[in-house]
Design a protein that fits this description.
Layout: E1 2-3, E2 16-22, E3 25-31, H1 40-55, E4 60-65, H2 88-97, E5 102-106, E6 109-111, H3 113-119, E7 123-126, E8 131-133, H4 147-155, H5 157-165, E9 169-171, H6 172-177, E10 183-184, H7 189-198, H8 216-229, H9 234-244, H10 250-264, H11 268-283, E11 300-303, H12 307-318, E12 323-326, H13 330-349, H14 355-363, E13 365-368, E14 379-382, H15 388-401, E15 407-410, H16 417-420, E16 430-434, E17 444-449, H17 455-467, E18 471-476, H18 483-500, H19 504-514, H20 520-527, H21 529-539, H22 552-558, H23 582-595, H24 604-624, H25 631-641, H26 651-657, H27 660-674, H28 683-687
Parallel strand pairs: 3-4, 4-5, 5-7, 6-8, 7-10, 11-12, 11-14, 12-13, 14-15, 15-16, 17-18
Antiparallel strand pairs: 1-2, 2-3, 8-9, 16-17
Amino acid sequence: MNKIVTEKAPHQSPGRVDFAMQGEIAVLTIDNPPVNAGSHAVRKGIVEGIQAAQAAGASGAVLIGAGRCFVAGSDLREFGKPLVWPELPDVIAALEQAPFPVVAALHGVALGGGLELSLGCDYRIAAPATEVGLPEVSLGFVPGAGGTQRLPRLVGRSLAIDLICRAARIPATRAHDIGLVDALAEGDLQEAAIAFLKERPPKRIARNLTPPNEPDEVIEAAAAAALRRGKGRPNVAEAIRLVKASAGDAQAALADERAVFQELRLSADAVALRYLFFAERKAASVDGLDMSAARAVTSVAVIGGGTMGQGIVRSFLTAGLPVVLIERDETALAASMAKIAENLEDQVLKGRLDTETADARKAALSGAVDYSALSGCDLVIEAVFEEMSVKKDVLNRLEAVLSPEAIIATNTSYLDIDEMAADLAHPERVLGLHFFSPADIMKLLEVVRAEATSDAVLATGLKLARKLGKQPVVARVGEGFIGNRIYAAYRRRAELLVLDGASPQAVDAAAASFGFAMGPFAVSDMSGLDIAWAMRKRQAATRDPKARYVTIPDKLCEAGRLGRKTGKGWYDYASGKAQPDPDVADLIEVARAEAGVTARGFDTQTIQRQLLAAIVNEAACLLDEGIAQRASDVDVALTNGYGFPRWRGGPLYWAYQQNRAALRADLGALAEAVGPGHRAGPVDGILDQIEIPQEG
C-alpha cells in the first residue's frame, strides 16, 4: 500500500491518503485520526490518489475512511487562514473528471466537507449506522463545496433547505430513503463498494442532475420556516437563496456558493461560532483529569418521577440504557410510568420514533417503590423535591442498598452538594448531574464536582454526558452552580429595571431583540415563578437588609400568579398567548411607591447592556471563586442552557468584543442600580482569558 501524502508543511494540517489496487478497483483510504478531518494533506492526497488510479488503469475507485468514520468535516483550524490548493472544490473536480466512477463508502459520520466530498463522488454506499449532515449553517457560514447545489439535485430543494438550514444529522437509513445514499452495506463496507463498482455503473455526476419537480409553494414554505427558525441570520438567508438557485446553471451557482462561503467564513458570526465550537469541546474536559478512570455505566435508576424525573428517564432510555424508576407509592409510580409511555407513543405518532424503538424503550423501563430494586444499578440520580432534608434522606437510603462502586448523583439546581453528602460513608461517589428541563431535549448538563468527588466519578459523569448526547460543563459547588447563579443575577437586574421604570414587556422585547430565545419574564412564567420564590425565601435570613429587594415577583406568587401553569404570572395567558395584564401594571406601581422609586424610561440598548452587564459581572465573580474552570465554560453554559444567542459566542465572548471603557461604564451603572451588597467581579482579568480563533 502506498502513502500518497506524507509531508506536512508548517501551515498544513496532518493526515494522509493510502492508495491500493484491489484488482482493477482503486481504494483510497483517508487516514487522519481521530475523525479524518479534511485537512490540506488529505485533500492533496485524494487528488494524487485519483491520478495514481488513472495511471494504474483502474475501472473505478472507492473513497473510504480509516478508523471510526468517513470524514467528520473540514479542519476548522484552517478556516481563519488563506486556503491553499487543492481546496475542496478542486478535489471534487478531480473526482468528477476521473474517467471512471468513484464510490464514497461511508461509515461513522460524513459531515460538512465530508458529506460534500461524498456528493462529489458518483455514488454513495453507507453502513446502516452512519450519520450524514451539513452543519455549516450552525457555524455561521454556508456549505462551500457544492452542498447547496448537489444535495437539492438528489433530494429536492425543499428538503435540502430544511436539512441545510437545520444543520440536521440524519441516519443513513433516512438518507437512503430520500436518495442521498444509493445503497446500504450490511456486511464489509469496502467489499460492498468494490462489488458495486464491479457491476460497471456509469459515471453519474450530481451537479449535472436536475432537481426533482416540486410546487413552488412547498419550496417557499420550507424557506419561510427555515428563515424563521434561523432568526433571519445572513447565512441562513444565503443558504436558502443558493439552494433555490440549484434549478439553474450549476457552474454559475457553484461559483456563487463559493464566493458566499469565502465571505461568510470570516464573518463575525462565523468567528464567534468557531470560538464556541472549540469551547464546547474544551468544556467536556477537566485539566489534569484522567478520563481512562471512567467507569462503565450499563444500568441506571432515577428517584422521583415528576416532570424533571420523567425527562431524565427519557434521556437515559434514548441513550439505550435500562432504567429503574423509583416513586414514593404505587399510585405515583403508575402515573409517572404512564406519562413516559404516553410521551413515547406521541413521538411515534409525530414520526420522530418508529414503533419498534418505542417498544424497546418501554421494555427497558421498570418501576418500583422499594429501594431494594436498585441493588444492581451502576448509577442512581435523585430528582426529588428541592429541599435539603429530603435529598439527604434519599442519599442515605441509597448508600444503604447500592454497591460500593455505584455512583450517586443529584439533580439539584441550587443546593450544597457537600452538605448533602456530609453524612455518607463514601461521599467520594457523589456528584451533581444538573439536567435542564425538558431533560431529554435540553443539551446542557452541569456536571458538579463536590469537595469529595473522586476523579473516577467525575470522569464517569463526563463520559455519561457524551453518551446521553449532552454538552457537559463542569462546576464546583456553589449556590446555583454556573448557569442558575448567573441567571439569578440576570433576573434580579431585570426586576430592578422594572422597579425603576421599565415595563416587563419592554425588558423581554429588548432581550429577544438582542437574540435571547425568550425574555426573562416570559421564561419565569414558563418555568414557574414559585421556583425562584422558594429560593428567595430560603435566602431571606442571610440577605443584606440594606440591599435593594424587588417585592414584585413575591407579590405575584402571593396572588397565585405562578406563570403559565396557573394561567397568570407576569403576563395573562387567558387567550393562550402572553398578554400584558393591567393588574400586574397596578401591582408594579404599588411596589414602586412602597420603595420610594420615581419611574424613569429606559431605551432598548440600555436595557440590553444592563442585562449583559449583570451576566458578565456575575460570571467574573464565580470564575474568581473557582466555581467554573475557565471563561469559555461560562459561554458554553449560557448558550446551551439559557437561550443566549449562539452567533454572539456567549456573554464573555461578547464582552471581549466591547469597548472596555463602555463596558466599565455599564458595570458602574449596574453597581449603582444594585446598591448595597453589590460585588464587582474582576471582569478585565477574566476577559483576558478569552481565546479567540486566529484569523488571517
